[in-house]
Design brief:
It is a single chain. With about 350 residues, this protein is α/β, with parallel strands linked by helices. It folds into 2 domains: about 180 residues, NAD(P)-binding Rossmann-like Domain (Rossmann fold), CATH 3.40.50.720; about 160 residues, no CATH class. The chain is about 35% helix and about 20% strand. The strands form 3 sheets. A 6-stranded parallel β-sheet has the order 12-11-10-13-14-15, with helices on both faces. A 5-stranded antiparallel β-sheet has the order 3-2-1-5-4. Strands 8-7-6-9 form a 4-stranded antiparallel β-sheet, covered by helices on one side. Helix 1 packs parallel to helix 8. The chain is elongated.
């Protein structure tokens, strides 16, 4: 490794250690979204809102077995749709009712209940045996909603969504809030609550320290699973491999923030000294998941160069070799194994 790269790596490692050192900005327990990927829906909703077109279908309540949870969203705009509230069986009716809501400029309430045996025996049931209660919200009636959706997409903040049965809505993200009052008839549901509070937690964030042949596919998989990604890679040979990250920087200081939210850090330089520097810095952080690429023997060799205090700080959080043993060889199998382990950890940690 060139001497200049080693100096830069050491500087980056020191900056990383300062960013999330205990007592700093890091979260002591995860507060991220534990399942799902609302990012494409949020992005499409923001774009449609700027055009003042389309309808947001927002699940406010569920019972029984349902495909979507309370707070799930979908966009219906003309013949197009982004997001799913069922396996596809409910969407034609949702699209029809969404078109009506948009034409009338009103909030429409929709209940779909497939729990009754009568529906099953008549052939009308859709198989889920659950109930969905949904608010259909014309986006042209919600000026400024795109600002909140974009703030949530940027990461690090919860999107707080309050919906009242009288058509009053109040949403907030990153210190910005909007309130609207939409014309509507009260929903004919029993029991009928006064309203619903539907917080959308921030997306989980993964930090990739270094890049290699597995990085392009890994970034795509994490994006499709709902993760925000930040990649730090200074070496020209691998810089392009990290360009699909949400944030891509040559050095930690170039990333543009001193203390980003970080839930998982992956040490994957394929370079011994750079990985050592990264582990040295990560030991002083609260990042709850630390993954190290490479065999156990390599981890043992790296640990020999760390102080006992650093090793003790890393061991409870370190996953080495990172990735589930799914079988296979090559960068594609490695990327899949890492994404699978991160997703399993996300589901467990996000519900803790």
């Amino acid at each position: 490794m060139p001497a200049t790269a080693g100096v830069a790596a050491a500087a980056d490692a020191a900056a990383l250690g300062a960013a999330q050192r205990p007592g700093g900005a890091a979260q002591p327990r995860p507060d991220f979204l534990s399942a799902g990927n609302p990012r494409p829906v949020a992005r499409a909703l923001a774009a449609a809102a700027r055009r003042q077109q389309g309808v947001l279908a927002l699940v406010v309540e569920t019972a029984g077995s349902t495909y979507a949870a309370p707070g799930a969203m979908a966009l219906f705009e003309g013949e197009s749709q982004v997001g799913w509230l069922s396996g596809g069986c409910l969407e034609p009716e949702l699209a029809r009712r969404a078109a009506q809501a948009e034409a009338q400029g009103r909030l429409e309430w929709l209940e779909i209940d497939t729990r009754d045996d009568a529906h099953l025996f008549s052939g009308a049931a859709l198989g889920c045996r659950g109930r969905l209660r949904i608010a259909l919200l014309p986006l042209r009636m919600l000026p400024g909603i795109e600002v909140l959706l974009e703030a949530w997409q940027a990461g690090g903040t919860t999107l707080r969504r309050d919906v009242a049965a009288d058509g009053t809505l109040r949403w907030e993200a990153d210190g910005q809030d909007r309130a609207w009052s939409l014309p509507c008839d009260p929903p004919e549901w029993s029991p009928l609550p006064a309203g619903w509070r539907l917080p959308l937690s921030r997306p989980p964030e993964a930090l990739l320290l270094g890049a290699g042949p597995e990085t392009p596919l890994l970034l795509r998989l994490l994006r499709e699973l709902g993760w925000r990604t930040r990649a730090v890679e200074q070496r020209p040979r691998w810089s392009m491999a990290a360009c699909d990250a949400d944030d891509h920087a040559r050095t930690w200081h170039d990333a543009g923030t001193a203390a980003p939210v970080c839930d998982a850090a992956l040490v994957m330089h394929h370079a011994f000294e750079l990985d050592r520097d990264a582990l040295e810095a990560l030991a002083g952080t609260r990042i709850p998941f630390i993954g190290l690429l490479g065999p156990r023997r390599r981890r043992d060799d790296l640990f020999k160069l760390l102080s006992p205090a650093r090793r003790a700080a890393l061991e409870p959080r370190l996953h080495s070799p990172v990735g589930l043993d799914l079988g296979g060889q090559g960068p594609e199998a490695i990327a899949l194994s890492i994404a699978a382990q991160l997703q399993a950890w996300r589901a467990r940690a996000g519900q803790a």
